[in-house]
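tokens incoming
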């Protein structure tokens, strides 16, 4: 089990309460290239790397990655070993841990499975736990919004399951868990429809949510556990989807930012993907200290790989090409369950969305066997070529400038990692 020390998260909270704009990016991805880029970027400094998996990706039944929490920990440890990243600087978090995966089942079975998932996450060594019981379950919950008291009760019940699992690990783990709570939680993966704006969390709602949550923890005998709640998920007005980005406007969230100065928590923000570097910095300044990012990182990977595929078309005979883009589209067409609720329109429109959308549902298909083989063939084809400066300038202009100034090698792997790192650099800047 890795040493997953939550102390740095405490340091962020302390710094924020002292008026210092400190934050951390939460890398929400199981993609090996993303994890490699994140570890290479973080290795040169002293700050920890926070990596999170969601309830949909990783759970006790395998999730869509096929990995249990223990499998995911072993996988991340292996990537860390390959990249010489020290395990003591790794923090693993569980995102949306609650009944979302089983929300169509009766509450009794959904909550029992959620408790089993919490136990599996904690026993695998995760230390940052986002408890999310914000969704309605099966036919048990009445129409309308889920009652806050019921959501809080379920949240506290899940916290109790996590604490029980932690106790089983022995005294050394008695205070290792750090919790994120909140009822205004966006759905995982970005919006499924176009949105022109989203409702910024109102201070009275945040205040009431905290009061009800604290009362629920007390009712379960979890007063000491409440002391390890470090963050509240709120909506500061940011979101993204297939064809839109809602940028952060600090004026719209000023009351929420001021409220953070009166409570012992920081805010966690989901769906910060595609925000500008300046907007990310303003979020951290305004106490939105934990910035979740995932699709923007795999989108950058996809952009780099597609650029290389277009260069391949110019350099390699047709019979020897990888045909990566076509093989990816075949895989997505064959198994549409990961994108069909996000992309809408005619045949040409949905194909464009599948390939280029900011929702980046293509990220679910990189592990397909034929896609992996095509990617390896693409990389091998281009390893054997010298990429002409004109093609680099056309398809990867930012990386072309770095190659020209000898800051970057023109090898295809280096170009991909640098493209991902360009996103990570924005978050490093924002985090202070």
């Amino acid at each position: 089990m890795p040493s997953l020390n939550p102390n740095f998260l405490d340091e962020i909270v302390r710094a924020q309460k002292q008026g210092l704009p400190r934050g951390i990016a939460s890398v929400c991805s199981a993609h090996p290239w993303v994890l490699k880029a994140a570890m290479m970027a973080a290795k040169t400094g002293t700050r920890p790397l926070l990596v999170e998996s969601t309830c949909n990706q990783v759970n006790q039944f395998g999730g869509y990655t096929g990995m249990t929490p223990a499998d995911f920990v072993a996988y991340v440890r292996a990537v860390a070993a390959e990249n010489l990243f020290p395990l003591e600087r790794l923090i693993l978090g569980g995102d949306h841990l609650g009944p979302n995966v089983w929300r169509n089942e009766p509450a009794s079975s959904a909550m029992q499975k959620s408790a089993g998932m919490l136990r599996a996450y904690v026993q695998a060594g995760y230390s940052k736990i986002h408890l999310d019981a914000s969704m309605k379950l099966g036919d048990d919950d009445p129409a309308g919004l889920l009652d806050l008291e019921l959501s809080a009760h379920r949240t506290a019940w899940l916290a109790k399951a996590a604490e029980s699992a932690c106790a089983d690990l022995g005294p050394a783990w008695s205070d290792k868990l750090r919790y994120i709570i909140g009822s205004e939680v966006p759905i995982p993966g970005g919006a499924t429809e176009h949105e022109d704006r989203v409702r910024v969390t109102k201070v009275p709602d945040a205040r009431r949510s905290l009061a009800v949550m604290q009362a629920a923890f007390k009712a379960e005998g979890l007063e000491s556990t409440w002391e390890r709640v470090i963050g509240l998920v709120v909506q500061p007005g940011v979101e993204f989807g297939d064809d839109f980005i809602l940028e952060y406007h600090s004026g719209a969230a000023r009351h929420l930012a001021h409220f953070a100065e009166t409570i012992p928590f920081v805010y966690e923000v989901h769906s910060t993907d595609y925000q500008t570097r300046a907007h990310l910095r303003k979020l951290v300044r305004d106490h939105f200290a934990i910035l979740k990012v995932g699709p923007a990182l795999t989108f950058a990977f996809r952009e780099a790989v597609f650029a290389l595929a277009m260069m391949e078309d110019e350099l390699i005979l047709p019979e020897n090409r990888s045909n990566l883009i076509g093989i990816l589209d075949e895989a997505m067409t064959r198994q549409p369950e990961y994108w069909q609720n996000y992309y809408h329109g005619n045949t040409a429109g949905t194909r464009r969305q599948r390939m280029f959308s900011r929702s980046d549902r293509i990220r679910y298909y990189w592990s397909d066997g034929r896609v992996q083989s095509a990617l390896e063939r693409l990389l091998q084809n281009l390893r054997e070529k010298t990429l002409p400066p004109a093609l680099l300038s056309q398809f990867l202009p930012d990386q072309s400038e770095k190659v020209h100034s000898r800051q970057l090698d023109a090898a295809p792997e280096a170009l991909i990692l640098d493209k991902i790192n360009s996103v990570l650099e924005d978050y490093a800047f924002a985090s202070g």
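note: The beta strands are 24-28, 49-54, 90-97, 128-131, 178-181, 229-233, 239-241, 244-246, 266-269, 288-293.
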